[in-house]
Amino acid sequence: MMHMMALHVHGSSNPLGITGNLDRLPMHGYFIFKDLVTVFVYLIALSLFVFYSPNTLGHPDNYIPGNPLVTPASIVPE
Q: Would you put residue 17 in left (φ > 0), alpha (ψ -120 to 50) or beta?
């Protein structure tokens, strides 16, 4: 984010040596819109994953009811 702000304020160097503000592209009109579209697509995909299939990455052992009299095999001392 800091890089984008510095690039927007100071501009970048270029091989043509254009230093005038008239020849630069406005930051808000193009790049912010493109980045916001990407963020919204990511949030929609994440929301679909979280709300419609939350157990996709769940481990099957999480669905076994706990037994307080038995130590789980994964933490039994040697």
A: left
